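Many introductory courses stop at the sequence. We go one step further.
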Amino acid sequence: MPRKSTISRLSPEQRAYIEQLLREDRLTIDEMMADIRAKFATEESPSRSSLGRYRQNFETMAGRLRDIQAASRVLVSELGEDVNDRGGQRLLEAVTTLATHAALEAQDREDGVSIKEIGELARGARAVLQARTASLRERQAIENAAEARILQKQSAALEAARASGDATEDAVQFFRKRILGVNE
């Protein structure tokens, strides 16, 4: 098992500063070394070779993240731009997480994860989202039908109370408006 990088043994502040310099990507290794030594004069500085290796790994990871962002754009185009309900958002997040995980796991494989595989995953997620939407519409239709039946029964009970003389016209109208929410 290889030993830990000297970069990983630095203080969190120093590592964060090195990563910031790497993200900015404006300095050479030698310029980074001088900048790190100047900023953290009292702390141990990494060697030039360990900084170079860390930079290579950082650039490799940044490249993978750019690939993941491209795959995410494919996902959004497959799922549609208007995925705005919570379920759709969570599904999109789950697929993106799976794609990210697959891409990071594939770093050891030579063939990696292709955009085609990510696209197939996105199409599968889209099918799940469409089925979920259809199921939601069906549940809403069932709820609406049940509410209509209850309202019909309650209206019939109010009419029966009025016909039998158990309730006055004013009482029936009050219950229709305030309780049943019917404005006739």
